[in-house]
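REQUEST ID: PR-0412
SUBMITTED BY: lab tech R.K.
PRIORITY: routine
TASK: structure prediction, single protein chain
INPUT:
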Amino acid sequence: MNELFEAIKGKKFAVFGRAGIDLFCDEIGIKSENAVKFRSDLGGSSANICTGLVKLGSQASLITSVSDDAVGRFAVNRLRDYGVDIKYVKKISGECRTSLAIYESVLDDFQNVIYRNNAADFQVQIEDVDKVEYGHFNAVITAGTVFASDPSRSSTFHAIKNARQAGLPVIFDIDYRPYSWPSSEVASDVLSRAGMSSDLIVGNDEEFGFMAGDYDLGLDKARELASLGKTVIYKMGDKGAISLNDKNEIRTGIFPTKAIKPVGAGDSFMAGLLASIADGFSLEDSVLRGSACAAIVVSKPGCSGAMPTTDELETFLNES
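STATUS: complete
OUTPUT:
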């Protein structure tokens, strides 16, 4: 774990995954079907993680594909606006499209409508990940969605191999989205392979249970992975989290907040966790700071735009 933490302290992350566009009603309590005005912003789990990392003082480069159209260019422009490195964002022509999410600032009967047919980010090729200058980074981050379809799946496993050869640790956000996968059997097998290929694994209790093949065995799966020398963060919603390695299990709680929506928490948690490790905080404190970031994001409309800066995080912690 010490080698993992020392690497992360370099603060330069190569992030594999998707960028998209979010349309959201920021009027609190208004359902999408009743809204007449929507705001647009950067979306996609990996793009959100990148934004969160940059706002907290780290550097992040996104490796993905977007459609060569107005929506894809919007995503690239917003990545640039947030300070994310776009050197490895490829624009592709044809019928593939950048993902769209439409959601609301509502908790009751919350709806997030995702459009991901023929998703552009699934078109990342092996030749694309071979162009990445791995020596310029300190760690690699992958999110589960990149493994849902080829060629992105094979390319990301190839990227992990490249990262290993460069001596970089691999961080894996399970991020299981059933709608992206051809079947649950394929998803369980591939996500388990990705977990075995990683050094730090972050997921919620349902995701670990899914990987285990039994939702009641999620913690057992997390412990199994930790016994193999991996660091595992097992999130349990309002019950907090358990951080595991081969020697310890650390339980942490959450911060009370007035949530207005359920999305964005996982991405913000990951950014806060890694940025805090990069700043020299212990694993326990880093998990708590990640939880604080999640609490901040669910209390505001949007995702990337709601990611806290370091000053906003510290203010929240001082007031909690």
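NOTES: The mean pLDDT is 96.
REVIEWED BY: pending
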